[in-house]
Amino acid sequence: MKGKIVFIFLLLTCIFTNAQDVSLVAKVSKNKLGLNQRLRIEFSINKQGGDNFTAPKFTNFKIVGGPSQSVSQSWINGKASFSQSYTYILEPKIKGELTIKPASILIGGKTIMSEPIKVIVLDAVAVPKDPNNPNYVAQQNIHLVAEISKSAPYVGEGIYVEYRLYVSENISVYDTGVTEAPKYNGFWNQEIKVNSYPVKMGKYNGEDYRYIVLQKALLIPTKTGKLTIDPMKMDIVIGVPTGRADFFGNVITRNIRREFASTKKVIRPKSLPLNGKPANFSGAVGDFNFDVALKNDILKANESAQLKVAVSGKGNLKLFELPEVTTPVELEKYQPERKESVNINAGGISGSISDVYTIVPQYKGKYKIPNLSFSYFNPKEKKYHTITSNDFYVDVLQGKELQPAIVENEVQKQNVIATGKNFRYIATKTSFNKIATTDFFKSNSYYLLLLLPLFAIPIVIFISKNNEKRNKDFAGNKQRKAERLAKKYLQEASKHLGKKEAFYEALERALHNYLKAKLGVETAEISKENITEILMDKQVEATTINQLIDVLKSSDFARYTPFTATQMKEELEKAKQVIIKLDKQF
Fold it and tell me: Domain spanning 2-122 has what CATH number?
């Protein structure tokens, strides 16, 4: 029984071995070397029983070692494998592109041949006296490389840089650390997160290496010319073979710490073409879609509608502005809310950005919102595209009527009406009567009028100087005017307590005029973000800023929600307290 099992095992081994495709493979340690360097070539056969191995004639090479033979046989998961190799150490005699011809071996009466291999021999390189010097070995077997996806992109076109660490199979890496990160001057850049570091196989200078991807970054050039990416630098702890073995034949390694740096990379961005460039082009580069949508086009006065302007696709989404919506004066437009849904990876930036406008009509009628146009440059097609939306119409069914403009100084023609008293006779005779007179000279009135200029002159001079000073104080006049308007509107708001729309309109106008007077901003610049930033620059307390923003928010949203008279009184008091606090801090 035992003999049968051994027989079956040997039979299966022969079957598996015969089932394999027989091949003779040639492999070199490096495909590119200096004239004074050496390479190792190994010929391996995957079937037992080979005989009469014939090495090629190593033309233009000198054999400095070998041949040495080794045999390997294994049985893994029920599968047998066999390998027999013949190894030579060669040294080139001349420079150039040299070819190592095929080797051959006879198996089962059939001659099996390897493939020819090309090797590039360059000028002699600097080699230390001791080829086993750990620093020299590390330099030859580890390479920190920066890979660029495109070296001549358009301005605004995204490219990526990938930093790889190549390590040969002859040495081991125990620890790494970045000592100097690369600098991307002239680029908008975003690091791409690398979650894991899987070991991959690849080639560097024609030789087989293991490598890992250390870092990735997306780069978008913002100008033309010669842009330089400075090197990345790393400290690496390496286990380097010393060329000696211990008592048991194990190779002795030595750990060294050495700094490596990637090469400097040069990018030369191209200018976008002027031919066909649209007038409204704002710097969008990529492949995009453009959409404008209006929510609720039938409204009542003081109801709100949402107008969304969106760009989606792939390109420099974070580096251009969306077209701005223009509305008639009868439609009140608020600052847009920016929304972004953007994904950044090695392929570039993709996703969408949008501006959402809140529009509130003031009067009854039908109003047109003009169309919008968006232009972008497609680097693959090398041309510009323009997308134009449709016109939108807002129909306001209920609200105050818009009064027609009154033309002043208009002269109306009237007919002349004749009466009996239009014309009278001219008198030709007169009669005079004597008038009683009193002596004004030396009277009390005379002396009073005589002394009056003496008292009036100083008063007139004082008043004129004050008026002159006030007239020259343009900023002060503007501030006083705005404060009067703010006071006026606060008084008007108090009159409209209980009338929600009128109250909050007056309250908002009062706050806007006060801010215009104190901060020197225009109405178009009044947004919560701008006001917050300006007040912080003026070192206004954060609590006061928050109170002001709360009042403004209440004025914005209270129009569309139920509010009681008590709440309106509280809002009015809050507005007064905010103005008092701001005045003190200013």
Answer: 2.60.40.10
